[in-house]
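quick one if you have a minute, typing this from the bus. theres a chain ive been looking at and ive put its sequence and its fold in C-alpha cell form underneath. please have a look and point out which stretches look like helix strand or loop to you. anything you notice is useful, everything is just below.

***
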Amino acid sequence: MTWVSGEWTLVVISGREWVEDEDTIARSLPLTPVDRPREARLDQDADGVARDLLGGTDALDRSLQRWAADAVVDEAARARIRARWLRIQAEGDATFAGALLDLAERDRPVVLDVGGHRVRGVLVGVGGDFVAVRSDQAQQVLVRTDDIVAVRAEPGTGEVSGDRSARYDLTLDAVMGPIAADRPDVLVRSRDGVVVRGELRSAGIDVLALRVGGDPPTPTWVPLRAVSMLVIEP
C-alpha cells in the first residue's frame, strides 16, 4: 500500500468512522511516503521495460531504423512485382497493330520483312491496314500490314507492350486518291513480287493507273488488292 503525502484518509473500524490526519496515519500504519507524481513513475517504468527488451534507447533507435529500411525494401519488392504483373497482363493483350504503334512512338529505326523484300527506316504512321515508313533513302513507303512477315527493332529500343489498338481506320486504298492527285513517281510492289515503276496518274475504286516510262510511255493498271507496297520517290 502506498501513502501519498498531503491527502486525508477516512478509516472505518467496527462500524465507527473518524478522520485522521496524515501524521496520525503515518505513525500507526507501515506506509512508505512517496513524493514523485504517478506520471513520472509510469515513464520510468516504461523506460526500464524498453531497456530490458531493446537494450536502451540507442538500441531502440537502431531497431526503428532497421524496421524502416526493411519496410522500404518490402515496398520496393511489391512495386516490382506489381510492375511485372502489369507488364505480363499488357503483353497478354498485345496486338500487332499495337506493337507497331509503340514502335512508331519510339521514332527508332526498324526493318520490315515484306515477302522477299526488306524495308529499312523509321515508322511514322499506322493506319487501319497499313504503315508509313520514312526509309533510309528519304522515300515515303506505305506497306500493307497483312503483308508484313516480321518487324525487327534495333537493339536498345526498349519495352514494347503492344496492348493498344490502331488510332485510325484510314486504309491504304483510301489514301491512294490523294497521293495520285500529285502524280508522283512511284514504285508499286505487288504481293507476288512484281514491280511496276512509273508516274501515278489516278486511283479508282479498285485500281491504280500508272504511266510507265518509255517512248512512248506505257499506260499500266494495277488492282488495288494486289498492291503490297507503294514507294513514293523523293
